[in-house]
Amino acid sequence: MKDIERPELSWDEWDELKDPRPEENDFDAVVASAMTRRAFMGRVLAMGSGAAVMGTGLLNTTSAQAQASNRFAFTPIPIATDFTIHVPEGYSWAPVAKWGDPLFSDAPAFDPKSGVTKDGQARAFGENTDGMELFNVNGHEIIAVNHEYANTSQNLPLTEGEVTSADDVTLLQNAQGVAVFEVAETDGVWDIVVDSPYNRRITHTTPMAIQGPAAGHDLLKTEADPDGVLALGTMNNCGAGKTPWGTYLTCEENFNGYFGSTDEGFERSGEFARYGIGLEGRYAYEKFDARFDISKNPNEPNRFGYIVEIDPADPTSTPVKRTALGRFKHENAATAVAPDGRVVVYLGDDERGEYLYKFVSRDVYVPGGDTSTLLDHGQLYAAKFNDDGRGEWLALTPEATGMADEAEIAILTRLAASAVGATTMDRPEWVAVNPVAAEAYCALTNNRNRAVKANAGGDETPVNGPNPRAENNYGQIVRWYPESDDHAAVDFTWDLYVMAGNPTVHDDAYAGSDNVNEGNLFNSPDGMMFDSAGMLWIQTDGDDSNEDGFAGMGNNQMLVGDPVTGEIQRFMTGPNGSEVTGITWSSDRRTAFVGIQHPSAPFPDGDGSLARSTIVAIKRDDNAIIG
Ligand code: FEO
Ligand code: CA
Ligand code: CA
Ligand code: CA
User: Fold this and answer.
1) Which of 169, 201, 376, 468 could form a disulfide with 212 if both were Cys (CB 3.0 to 4.6 A apart)?
2) Local confidence band at 438 (pLDDT 50, 70, 90 cut-offs)
3) Beta-carbon contacts of residue 412 (< 8 Å; ≥ 6 apart)
């Protein structure tokens, strides 16, 4: 059943193809490969020194598991390798929004063979659904969702995936960005409310204000925007976040891949190399839209790679790029409010050997107060994990980094984190903050370069505490406990919640931690969100070959983890070829909305249709709360 392959490379594969890292192995990769599984587990537990502080390390998993297994309200399901979705008995799923579904009645209907028109795409649900949040606005259920990137073989079927014209580029630009739209439930079935006044498409050309320290900086000025304060579009929107004041945070991840040069002799700077901005864009934008041609507009890429704040309650509002939260391949933005009212935003940079960050606002959040500049002033930090189970957030200041000012740190954040010696990580994907305990989790999805190659800045990536395996193809989830239960604190302790692995194939560290077993095998954790009860929903974006080291893992999936016991159970399996990414709940918590990104055809419309990224609604058959 593997005859239908997704032709597109993943973004990390594409990046490394265009920008190969040096091949030399400077590191002692022997360390991890020599580690037996028992020794590894001893190491994890040793790192969680002071079990009282750690609360619930992996040590007590087995006994606590038995006591608390009723926290799972479902019977776990087996893996799948087919082209549809599976959920536990007593649950059902149904599509809510599919690529090409009109948000407005003036958009033409989706054509199963030709897809969507260029203009219709700007009025319809976009491609590659990813991070999302639901907002209740005046009693209306409003979903804001990212359309991360394009799948040209599906989006441009008439040219067999080739980008051949300015119109093709416009179509792709309109298929990406963000959608905001109302949904409503009738007799248990959720649908888009076509023509709702809340509906909105944000694309690669929507005007965006630039605020925070980088606004107006010389590096952000272009011919079209000589003041450096108004960008066009948001790109490669990956994970998301929600502020306590009801706005949506969308995260610009692999923005580098949209730029290229029509001048083959253009010499890129070291900063461009660090961010992976090269001479050939992934979708040939530079050939048809000069804004993306770095030989003509060398500052344009500096206007991407930020967190963008969108007000889902006002479709006429101008989205704002919040430069104080730094510029890198932003995965998601997980917010917390510190005891003193300051706002904390956790941020991952998803590339091999890059860093984990957090922002702490200068001003405090006052419910009902002015929040228009709360995310413009504050301190950005990068995480340093020590092998003894402690860690600290390193402030990225001009003094600590040797950089000119806050603006330069906001624009060239990766260089700042390198300068202070933060810990190189195994591709930080989503961060999730537990609403019922003072702790946060980050999915470190995988890193085949760990202890093999340096990161793009030349920082070495030896095995270290939270990234303890060389050539790590499985991934892990690290969690930390801020000092004094204060997410704004500089110090923290940490441990590993889970190391994914395959105990049916390996008997060393690659078997995974004790809470991984034959019944819940998975690899490459990515999307993560806590539900209202403090259970952790984990989505995967990994190798779904079901072969060799990945045998027994099946398609990408969604699992639920109990932070207290460490127990993890499989809740859902996605269609073959897809990534399961993005989860949010209806206001009554009786529906979970889950994203299926880049499925292989024939999902979900059956034979003869192009493949369509889709948001599905999952409900319990008894309509009870599911998260
Ligand atoms: Fe868009 Fe790092 O996933
Ligand atoms: Ca992701
Ligand atoms: Ca991923
Ligand atoms: Ca993806």
Assistant:
1) 376
2) very high
3) 271, 274, 327, 403
